[in-house]
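Dear Dr. H.,

I hope your travels went smoothly. While you were away I took the liberty of generating a structure for the chain from your last submission, since the lab meeting agenda had it listed for discussion. I wanted you to have the full record in hand beforehand rather than looking at slides cold. The sequence, exactly as received, is reproduced here:
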Amino acid sequence: MKALSTFFYQFSNWKTLLLLLALYIVFPAYFLKNAEIRMNHLSGKTLGPIDLTIGFTPSRTLQMVEEYGEAARAFYATIEMTTDVVYPIVYSCLFAVILSLLYYRKSYAPFAYVNLFPFVSLVFDYLENITIVTMLKSYPEQSMTVASFCEIFKMIKWFSFVATVLLIIYGLLKSLKMPKDLKA
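The corresponding predicted structure, in token form, is as follows:
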């Protein structure tokens, strides 16, 4: 872990940040948007991906798997095993770079290896993807257990994502230089 954290501290600069930001924007603006449009077209319904649903609803997840239809299920599984393997790497690296820039050698860093925290989201995103692909590929057989694990992984992914954003906000606020007369 130390080697990876050190790598990000050394690798992080404005050029890297801008490159990763550009890559990050391309995924939701192009790849994921087009994938969702195609999934909806193939299913004949506006369902969207399971990845973006909120709340703990395993029965709704199983219902979505059924409603996709065969063509949309096959397409969605392919997206989960290709595009949605790369996207978590991109957003995790982007957030690792941001956190590295904000916390490098700062006394207010909340914990060691703070710049690696975004990879918690990556791990749970991958676990979520595995359960989604399992449900898509095993249909018509449905498992409430797999759907429940999917929902748990999804919730942890989103909570860790929000925690990463809060770490970024905290780092930004701490890095602001306040005028001396406002400091108490």
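Two observations you may find useful: Helices lie at 2-11, 14-43, 58-81, 83-103, 118-138, 144-175. DSSP finds six helices and no strands in the chain.

With kind regards,
E. W.
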